[in-house]
Write a structure and sequence with these properties.
single chain, 477 residues, mainly alpha
Amino acid sequence: MVFLRLRLTTGLLIFVTTLVVYTFCLNGVWAIDHATSFLELDWSLWTRHSFILGGSNFKPNSVDDFEYNGNYYSALAPGTPILALPIVAIGFVLDGQFTVFGHATVFSEFFVALTNAFASSLVYLVGRFFFSKKISAFLAFVYAFSTISWAFATYFFQSDVSALFCLLAAYFTIRATRHPDSRLFECAMAGVAVAVGMFVDYIDAIFLPIILFYVFLVLRDKKEPRVKPILAFVSTATLGLVLIGLYNYVNFGSPLTGSEQLYLHATSLLDEFSYPLYLGAYLNLFSPYRGLFIYSIFLVFGVFGFYEMSKSSYKNETVLLLAFFLGIFIPYSMWYDPSGGEGFGPRFLVAAIPFLILPAGAIIEKKERGMQTLAYTLYGVGVFINGIAGLTSAVTPMYNSSTPAFLTWTLPLFLRGGMDTWWLRYVGSDWPIPSAVIVGFALMVPALSDYLITRSDSRHTIPAAKEESVPYLGTGP
């Protein structure tokens, strides 16, 4: 077959298939506050080259806008709209004016879909530090199609964008501690990923101390030089703090006064983390309303996977993955509104999800009887839940913590044809057919990946030592 002769890399296969599915799920119906605030900022940057949305006569279209000293600003971290501007600008040109129901909205969503397709490929590349190609690819598809990242890849939210840079930070950090020949470069790139990540989502700043201590401790145990690698990382990572400080200073007159703080009228940064941790943890993990294990039951494998990995030769990396997960999970479980407002599942935790998925490979790799079948079954359940959300809406009404939002809102919305996809206007009452194709393809793509990997390995014999080597970014097998 011609397709097989193309010898597409596994990482590229993951990227392409994920992007195609996401593109056919982009929202073409709803305008929501979060995305609107981002679009307003992009419009201001495009037309007036300013972070100010407007003056006293400006009429905000989003609850995420706020007034300060007579001007309106977005309360959200500015990194996502800044990164998206080159693509969103195409939509502005086509629209000829600001509108939340035009091309700009779809182009903004395509930017997020693009970043999360890259993030899915990075799950594969990070997985290859520990597992085979087949298992790593399966974990990548779990993240892409069996978690809430699918729904949020169809809206202009920062959650999936943040996940991309968190995964980049993890990738370069692990490489830095394993490859002394390129250690300075890897540490510097990990710092760049952290810097951009915290500009996308302020909470990602927690990766700076986590990586700093990890590199220091691992290199100390290896009795290898530590000063230069640490300086390489810190020098680039702190650029993120500098960018945030400059943004605050230009807009609010002080590098220590942030948009979120002014929006909430908080007296200090700590005021934003006022919710009881135990309640936030229950809400984000187990509640029918927002529970991570409800929306993606496959993640249970990750919990047991941490234990399995801790008994292997990957103890250091296991601690790192756990620290990355907790570094996002704990602060956002203490956030003043841990539910994140209207949204499908715990959207604040999207960037933490890959670090709970990756250890699951240790369970699947054991090849115990029925384990792989169970893993695929749980994957399928997640595809069904999150695929329906991807086709309908990443936003659900506000409920109490005991209300299952998927059964109460998302599934009934889907069953009555209430989807938000851009192609809905072209198919009308035939919407079940393309919907079934999209979800069915997401369900079957891991099997396709397995088949292609098997064919590739049988055609191109790879020495064992090379097969187990870790692929460099962009050159995976």
